[in-house]
Design brief:
Elements (H helix, E strand, L loop, with lengths): L20 H20 L1 H9 L5 H20 L3 H15 L10 H5 L3
Helix pairs in contact: 2-3
Length: about 110
């Protein structure tokens, strides 16, 4: 019978798995993902900042995010996101049979 906490699988005793290695890996992964999203999804950042309550800090952030959005658009970095967003909007607008598009208020209402 196994003692409490023992693994039924023989694992190598590797110092790489001890200490803060997992925390460092997680932090690096989240940081890299955040940078990729910042570069490729400036539209969402700009939309999010635009939804904030108006304040002097929000106005500055809105200017910076608009400039960033324009820069990523000019560099073509946002092209894959724009293509996918366009595809999604066409799929969202698709209707089947005699179905009609819902009113904007009906679609945004929460149950």
């Amino acid at each position: 019978m196994l003692d409490h906490g023992e693994s039924p699988v023989d694992l190598e005793d590797d110092a790489e798995w001890e200490g803060e290695g997992g925390l460092l890996w997680s932090t690096a992964t989240i940081g890299i993902a955040a940078l990729i999203l910042l570069v490729t999804n400036a539209v969402s950042l700009d939309d999010w900042i635009g939804d904030m309550h108006p304040s002097p800090a929000q106005e500055q952030a809105a200017e910076i995010s608009a400039d960033w959005r324009d820069a990523t658009d000019q560099l073509g970095v946002a092209a894959p996101r724009a293509w996918l967003h366009g595809w999604w909007k066409r799929a969202e607008a698709a209707r089947f049979g005699k179905e009609t598009a819902p009113d904007r208020e009906d679609r945004d209402a929460t149950p």
